[in-house]
Amino acid sequence: MIPIIYGILAFAASLVLTFFVRRFSFSRGIVDVPGEGRKKHRGSIPLLGGTAIFLSFWIIFGAAYFFSEPSFWKTISARQIIGVFIAGAVLMIFGYLDDKYSLRPRVQVWGPLLAVAVALLFDVGARFITNPFGGILRLDTYGFGAAWMGIWSIFPANVVAFFWLFGTMYTTKVLDGLDGLVSGIAAIGGFLIFLFATITKYVQPDVALLAMIFAGSAAGFLVWNFYPAKIFLGESGSLFCGFMLGVLAVIAGGKIAIALLIIGLPALDLLWVMLRRVFWEKHSFALADRKHLHFRLLDLGLSERQAVLTLYLFSILFGGVALFLPSREKLAALGILIILMIILSVLTVLWPKKDKSCQK
Q1: What is the per-residue pLDDT for 318?
Q2: Which of 65, 95, 110, 194 is buried deepest, with most CB atoms within 10 A?
Q3: Does residue 322 form part of some domain?
């Protein structure tokens, strides 16, 4: 019950802090103005919403850490906690600058890169992953160099962690196109990882506590962010949500499959869109457009709420099923997800498009 209590406290803290962050954003003129193409919301909407999630998470986590026994933290070290905090702070700083000054993509990317670098320096890496065909794959066995070399002494683990964290951050960054979509999936993801660390044979109370506090923080913000949104996540929030889901998956090992199934559909959509832009349309993969799955669902005639709830359902379904599947079956579930992504991509291309005025 302790993680649930702290999750409720995080929910309440996020709910209150979002109110003040919203007022701050208005007072500084840090708002998203509606325009052509992808931005069709009504009126100026304040940004910086990720700050409320970040602050509520660390305030409640700090209280939980202070009141717990040192022996409680068996999976997560103090060094890793410090690394996650500093990396999150880097995302907040770069996100604030981007929301205020609209940084160029070549500058924006430095925020996630520095955040991942900090995380790796503080040992937030994928030391091992579950082998779908049995056993454990150690990623910290074949490194090179001495311990004083830091991250380079466990090179394979850090390569995996780098691409994983960078991928989860950019998945949620791109996914942040509809009201409540990213914050809702973040809350779902945190809660499912909490369940995995609580009710399965891989019981990890400290990971469960971390996941539940994050889920509560995201859910509290979702009250303000669900359609019609009164505040947006902003650059910092969309990246921080993906970063935390990625961290929760690798910090204890073995949860990458669950996190991948939770965000699998958006991640596959991101990969498909990038490949299409480069090899078919012959332009930069970073060029923004309305061809992502969540926008295509609107073109099919779904309302914004219906599209968001549909993607929630996929995250709950595949993430929930993964809780009770052995590793090989999780691989099969990922294959089903890929097939589903292909079907949806073909369907959204061939189906007659309908105009919607409510999309963001």
Answers
A1: 84
A2: 95
A3: no
Q: Which domain holds residue 113?
A: 2-255
Helices (H) and strands (E) in the chain, counts: 14, 4
- Tell me the pairing of strands 31-32 and 128-130: unpaired
Number of Cβ within 10 Å of residue 239's Cβ equals 30
The tokens for 254 are 């073995």
235 part of a folded domain: yes
Residues pairing with 130 in the sheet: 136
Closest CA to 117 of 143, 150, 147: 150
Phi then psi for 136, rounded to 5 degrees? -120, 140
In a domain, residue 342? The reply is no
Cα–chain-centroid distance for residue 330?
20
Tally of domains in the chain: 1
Backbone CA torsion sign across 237, 243, 249, 251? negative
Above pLDDT 90, what percent of the chain?
45
Strand partners, 136: 130
pLDDT tens digits, one per residue of 60-99: 999 999 999 888 888 888 999 999 999 999 999 999 999 9
Q: Does residue 7 fall inside a structural domain?
A: yes
216 and 6 Cβ atoms separated by less than 8 Å: yes
